[in-house]
Amino acid sequence: MLQCLEGVKQLCGVLLKCCDLDLKQPKGLEDPEILARETVFSVSEVEALYELFKKISSAVIDDGLINKEEFQLALFKTNKKESLFADRVFDLFDTKHNGILGFEEFARALSVFHPNAPLDEKIDFSFQLYDLKQQGFIERQEVKQMVVATLAESGMNLSDEVIESIIDKTFEEADTKHDGKIDKEEWRNLVLRHPSLLKNMTLQYLKVKCTS
Amino acid sequence: DKNSHQINAFQLIGMASSLDLSGFFED
Q1: Between vectors from CA A198 to CA A192 and to CA A201, what angle results, nearest 5°?
Q2: DSSP β-bridge partners for residue A138
Q3: Residue A62 in 3-state DSSP?
Q4: Nearest neighbour of B9 by CB, restricted to A154, A166, A209
């Protein structure tokens, strides 16, 4: 009997712990000033961003969290579209690796896309985007995979010979250490020579919409 | 095809990819 009571006590303890943890899980706008201090957003920008987050996170399930379907829906206005990059960006936003985005993850990731964000943050993010296997370098095979996938998504058609030739030339230029891969330093040098590679890393909307 | 050889693979990915996060802000 005593053992049984002890078991019930332990179970209650575990349940209370779980509830407590769940309550502490930050979902919404807890303290805009902390986020404003730790990102490039102003307090009013954080508040405006939260309104956007609420809209996106309630599109499919109104739970104050963004799942992949809601993420795709917000980006493309359809959840049917296949996009390697949308998947990749979602995974990079999802720093807790639990398949959903809370407001803090969303705001911290979007902060990199702010016009005032440091260039190095944009370079790092774009590097991670292309480093599909997260090995700390971009392999030729990853580049080929991305080229083929994005061409297929867009309906553009290039022969394998042309694709191979473009990738050869890219590595001739970027892979200055001649080890068959592009590391972060080589990526940084390539991006500085071709600033257009960071074009999608800046969203003017974050300044215009969030302050209006 | 000659012109396509002058762009690098990442520029090509950028052109072909539909990824543009501005979709978040458009109704």
Answers
A1: 140
A2: A182
A3: coil
A4: A166
A169 touches chain B (CB under 8 A): yes
pLDDT tens for chain A, 212 residues: list them: 555 555 555 554 444 444 444 444 455 687 899 999 999 999 999 999 999 999 999 999 999 999 999 999 999 888 777 788 889 999 999 999 999 999 999 999 999 999 999 999 999 999 999 999 999 999 999 999 999 999 998 888 899 999 999 999 999 999 999 999 999 999 999 999 999 999 989 998 887 655 55
H-state helical runs in A81-183:
84-93, 103-111, 119-130, 140-154, 160-174
Residue A53's contacts (CB-CB under 8 Å, 6 or more residues apart) are A66, A103, A106, A107
| Least Cα separation, residue B12 to chain A (angstroms) | 7
All residues of chain A having their beta carbon less than 8 Å from the beta carbon of residue B3 are none
How far is Cα A37 from Cα A94, in angstroms, rounded to an integer?
Answer: 21
Residue A173: list chain B partners with CB under 8 A.
8
Whether A65 contacts A102, CB under 8 Å: yes
Q: Are A167 and A143 in contact (CB under 8 A)?
A: yes
CB-nearest partner of A83 from B5, B9, B18 = B18
C-alpha span between A84 and B17 (Å, rounded): 9
Sign, CA dihedral A5-A7-A13-A19, equals negative
Give me A163's structure tokens. Answer: 């694709």
Dihedral of the alpha carbons of A64, A100, B19, A92, in degrees to the nearest 10: 130
| Gap from A100 CA to chain B (nearest CA, Å) | 16
